[in-house]
Design goal:
160 residues; Structural Genomics Hypothetical 15.5 Kd Protein In mrcA-pckA Intergenic Region, Chain A; 5-stranded antiparallel β-sheet; elongated
Length: 160
């Protein structure tokens, strides 16, 4: 395969993993490129800070797609405010909570049981499964992401 094909495949792998469309991914890359620091690390950090990803990482949903649905159906609050935009960028110290009328939902229960069983909650979030509350204790860094991505190939692709 050519260098371009390898770079493109890596970008598609990241997009698919985070359930993003081309335009969404491109906008996140532009933000990462404008930020100070290493563009690839910034990209991964911005992807991890999306609300749909944070809800998934906290174990309140069994997939990012399910997390998007919970958010769009207004079941999630951030700092006490209902947020129905899955691409909302979560800040450090943000408190994410499941709304009261949805806390006993069967899908939510299943997702939490699965999350507890395989212990997938990352270090950068704190979760209280009983109260259905989570807090972003710090901004995620590249070392917090265990997925096998080579974001440098994506940076090279976009810098052409």
């Amino acid at each position: 395969m050519s260098d371009y094909a390898i770079q493109l495949r890596e970008k598609q792998k990241i997009k698919r993993s985070y359930s993003l469309l081309e335009k969404q991914f491109g906008l996140i890359f532009e933000d990462a490129n404008r930020m100070k620091g290493v563009t690839g690390n910034n990209l991964i950090s911005l992807l991890e800070r999306r609300l749909d990803n944070v809800v998934f990482r906290m174990g309140f949903a069994s997939s990012r797609v399910q997390a998007r649905q919970f958010i769009q159906h207004r079941h999630i609050t951030v700092n006490g405010t209902i947020v129905d935009v899955p691409s909302y960028r979560v800040k450090e110290g943000a408190v994410i909570e499941v709304r009261d009328k949805y806390k006993a939902n069967a899908m939510m229960e299943d997702a939490i049981k699965l999350s507890k069983a395989i212990d997938t909650v990352p270090e950068w979030v704190e979760v209280d499964f009983e109260k259905r509350i989570g807090k972003v204790s710090r901004i995620p860094d590249r070392k917090d992401v265990t997925a096998n991505f080579n974001e440098q190939l994506v940076v090279e692709l976009y810098s052409k």
